[in-house]
Write a structure and sequence with these properties.
The chain is mainly α. Helices cover 68% and strands 0% of the residues. It has one domain. The longest helix is centred in the first third of the chain and has 15 residues. The protein is globular. The two termini are 17 Å apart.
Length: 133
């Protein structure tokens, strides 16, 4: 939890933190020996995040995930920036699917905030954590 908040703060402080995070996630995956498809998923995994995402969106997202995960789907409805932020995994996956990315890449993006259930998802989750901006 503390790690996640620190990561969130670094995002905000870092110039263009999301782009750097995507590139760093892909680089970590490459270092860990992931194949090109998994590396691509790492590069694209957070692309569904809206550009107007603010610090409070990120902090509220961490707090909801930790203390009220059941409310997440309710807050993720609609077109507000916060809703789009909470729904970024699904939206990013839909975007990747529309671009013709492989089902594996689409699934990895869609599930990257769910508890990992296979080696691919564990590796992406690890790279996501380690890829501090
Ligand atoms: Fe994400």
């Amino acid at each position: 939890m503390r790690e996640r908040v620190q990561q969130t703060l670094r995002f905000v402080i870092a110039q263009d933190g999301d782009t750097r995070h995507a590139e760093r996630t892909a680089a970590v995956l490459r270092e860990l020996g992931a194949d090109e498809e998994l590396i691509l998923a790492g590069l694209l995994h957070d692309r569904g995040k809206p550009t107007g995402t603010r610090l409070w969106h990120r902090i509220a997202g961490v707090l909801i995930a930790r203390f009220a995960p059941g409310l997440r789907s309710r807050f993720a409805r609609g077109e507000s920036t916060f809703a789009r932020y909470l729904d970024h995994a699904r939206r990013g996956a839909a975007q990747a699917e529309a671009e013709g990315r492989s089902p594996r890449v689409v699934r990895l993006i869609a599930r990257h905030h769910e508890p990992p259930r296979d080696d691919d998802e564990r590796l992406l989750a690890r790279a996501d954590r380690e890829a501090l901006p």
